[in-house]
Amino acid sequence: MSELHPHPPVNFMDLAFRQAEAAFERNEVPIGAVLVDPATGEVLAADHNRVEELHDPTAHAEILVIRAVATSRQEKRLPFADLYVTLEPCPMCATAISFARLRRVIYGAPDPKGGGVESGPKLYALPTCHHRPQVIGGSGEERSAELLRRFFKARR
After folding, report:
1. Distance of alpha carbon 4 from alpha carbon 153, whole angstroms
2. Which of 51, 68, 78, 149 is the most buried (most CB within 10 A)?
3. Catalytic hit among 28, 62, 88, 118
């Protein structure tokens, strides 16, 4: 007899996309992020870009979720956590991810112009990088690309 699960598994990338859609509605670049404890399946933090709202160029979704969890746990390193984000992290966020020692980064679309993980400077490939999380790209790539296209088309 198989065990019944009281709750279906959570699609963490879908939660990140919900955050990105909330950003879109708030006239923020539509990028969402979710930080998860994969051992428990607990969503530790979820947010979206808030650069315009906070007048803060560092208020990217990835930075906000890392800050929220690190602050609440009073820990600067989160080696147990996985990050789901709708767009390849920029160099600033890729560095913060490395400094926080995140276990894994799962992202939607690549960012050939502004990415820092598998595009651009490829920070995790540099010999000076002290921590290299596992990186999985292309999870919801078309959905992410379409949301970004719609956002920037509406602003032209």
Report:
1. 46
2. 78
3. 62
